[in-house]
């Protein structure tokens, strides 16, 4: 019997080594933090939404919000909410993301309708991303929904999910949708050396939530959720890049800000490029007009300058936002498709430059 026990022991040791090897590989590609009291394994454990969860009806204390210009994420629809701790208030800031109090949770749900012409029917929710403010630091978490759409479960390593829909033009689209791992979340949300939200600034919230008739910031102030709010005419506003009634310059600048400026800003991860794309930037060279790249390479496509007025086909910026090549495209993560409408907007903006 001893040889058999020896063989069994060897196999158990080998299995243990293989498991350790898998753990090491996982730790190299994702940031796995210890579970805390706020890091729950199921989305339902937070009680953000009433049952059934898939209706995304907020519970008491959970507030819906929307952005004037949302980030493009492979045409995914999004529903955003925030949970602010009872009795606490958000502090107004004129240019940056609002100063949320400790314990705030930002909630963003990504979903696809089966038919984009009927956006409220046959919805499939793929993931819910959270940003939790704990000990003055924002912590990103991703929850992937099950096929039954009854709940979503914590996933730190990321995942690809096949999804299909009928597009605005009637064409059938198929996509391997990517849920980011925690490293990828942090790469986009890094500002200086800290993870920060990207969207909920005063300029983005200076607009009306669909289906309502009052500016969101005003509603937050009236509900005692926001303090130090100035008069409405003193609050800056980011344009809605989808609203064709607004000028092409403010629309294109809004698209570039939300899609690119979380990295391309003076304290962003791409600060060394010298290309800063916040809509508030006025210096033409900093914006990329007539600016040569800091490091030329495949990403330039043989073009010489970031933006060549009147010539989008000669502009590096246009080349990169039109690409889906991993070594060329911008943004580098968060999309696999070209945002046709956004790319056309920027192309027309450059073409009209004098």
What is the averaged pLDDT score?
A: 88
Total number of helices? 8
From the spread of the alpha carbons, the general shape counts as globular
- The helix content is 10-25%
Which regions have little confidence, pLDDT < 50, spanning 5+ residues? 1-37
Strand content: 15-25%
Distance linking N and C termini? 88 Å
What's the assembly state of these chains? single chain
**Biggest beta sheet summary:** 6 strands, antiparallel
Structural class: alpha+beta
Give helix and strand order, one letter per element, not per position: HEEEEEEEEEHEEHHEHHHH
Strand order, biggest sheet?
A: 1-2-4-5-6-7
For the CA atoms, what is the radius of gyration? Answer: 23 Å
Number of strands: 12
Short précis:
23% of the residues lie in helices and 19% in strands. It is α+β, with helices and mostly antiparallel strands.
Topology, please?
Elements: H1 2-29, E1 62-65, E2 77-83, E3 90-91, E4 105-113, E5 123-134, E6 137-145, E7 152-154, E8 159-166, E9 172-179, H2 182-189, E10 190-191, E11 194-195, H3 202-205, H4 216-222, E12 226-227, H5 248-260, H6 284-287, H7 316-321, H8 340-351
Parallel strand pairs: 3-12
Antiparallel strand pairs: 1-2, 2-4, 4-5, 5-6, 6-7, 8-9, 10-11
Helix pairs in contact: 5-8
Walkthrough of the structure:
The protein has 354 residues and is of the alpha+beta class. 23% of the residues lie in helices and 19% in strands. It contains 8 helices and 12 strands. It has helices at 2-29, 182-189, 202-205, 216-222, 248-260, 284-287, 316-321, 340-351, and strands at 62-65, 77-83, 90-91, 105-113, 123-134, 137-145, 152-154, 159-166, 172-179, 190-191, 194-195, 226-227. Strand 10 and strand 11 (194-195) form a beta hairpin.
């Amino acid at each position: 019997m001893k040889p058999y026990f020896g063989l069994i022991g060897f196999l158990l040791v080998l299995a243990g080594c293989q498991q350790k090897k898998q753990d090491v590989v996982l730790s190299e590609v994702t940031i796995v933090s210890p579970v805390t009291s706020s890091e729950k394994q199921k989305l339902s454990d937070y009680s953000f939404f009433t049952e059934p969860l898939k209706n995304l009806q907020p519970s008491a204390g959970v507030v819906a919000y929307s952005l004037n210009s949302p980030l493009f994420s492979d045409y995914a629809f999004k529903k955003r909410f925030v949970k602010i701790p009872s009795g606490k208030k958000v502090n107004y800031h004129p240019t940056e993301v609002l100063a949320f109090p400790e314990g705030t949770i930002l909630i963003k749900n990504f979903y696809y309708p089966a038919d984009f012409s009927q956006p409220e029917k046959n919805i499939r929710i793929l993931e819910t991303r959270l940003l939790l403010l704990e000990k003055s630091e924002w912590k990103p978490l991703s929850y992937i929904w099950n096929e039954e759409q009854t709940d979503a479960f914590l996933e730190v390593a990321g995942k690809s999910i096949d999804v299909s829909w009928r597009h605005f033009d009637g064409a059938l689209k198929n996509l391997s949708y990517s849920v980011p791992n925690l490293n990828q979340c942090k790469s986009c949300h890094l500002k200086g050396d800290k993870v920060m939200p990207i969207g909920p600034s005063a300029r983005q919230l200076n607009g009306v939530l669909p289906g309502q008739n009052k500016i969101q910031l005003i509603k937050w102030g009236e509900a005692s959720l926001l303090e130090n709010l100035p008069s409405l005419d003193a609050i800056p506003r980011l344009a809605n890049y989808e609203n064709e009634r607004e000028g092409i310059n403010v629309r294109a600048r809004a698209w570039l800000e939300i899609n690119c400026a979380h990295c391309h800003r003076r304290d962003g991860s791409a600060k060394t490029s010298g290309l800063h794309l916040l809509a508030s930037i006025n210096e033409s060279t900093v914006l990329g007009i007539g600016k040569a790249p800091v490091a030329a390479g495949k990403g330039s496509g043989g073009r010489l300058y970031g933006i060549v007025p009147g010539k989008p086909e000669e502009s590096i910026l246009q080349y990169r936002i039109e690409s889906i090549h991993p070594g060329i495209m911008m943004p580098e993560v968060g999309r696999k498709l070209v945002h046709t409408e956004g790319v056309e907007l920027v192309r027309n903006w450059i073409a009209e430059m004098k």
